[in-house]
Amino acid sequence: MTKRLLSIVIPAFVIGILISGIAYAQCPQMEKGQGMTKKSEMMPSFTPAQEKEMMTLHMNLIKETSPIEAELKIKEIELQMLWQEDNLDAKKILAKVKEIGNLKASLEEKMVNQKLSMHKILTPEQRKMMKGMMGCCGMGDEGCKMGSGCQMGSCQ
After folding, report:
1. Is 149 helix (H, G, I), strand (E, B) or coil?
2. Which of 35, 39, 53, 101 is 20 to 30 A from 86, alpha carbon to alpha carbon?
3. Residue 136 has what pLDDT?
């Protein structure tokens, strides 16, 4: 039972890490109604060592990013409060925007490092399967960026 559960959870986790939800949703490679069934059928098999390393990477990422995400949320609330004041202070608002930008950049850097670490774990065959499975929103493909959808015919 545990092995079957891991064979479902780990691949789903890898997909979640390798592609952002926004880019994934905007990429026309996966048609509506197709669901995870067809994607999971193409999912490469992972060795127990790979699964363990992926889980460790995931847990470490959560440990590293959770405090940053919490701080980011607080800064965003503080920015909203600055915008609610009667006398807007441009310096305070811009400073808060810069703080938010720095936190977002820190999160993005950690995600990039996570993806690079995950990439190193996969064999060339697994990378090929993952890339084919993810279409334009795959690792290293510049066609889709978070929030931008597919650009210049990169998803065909």
Report:
1. strand
2. 101
3. 42
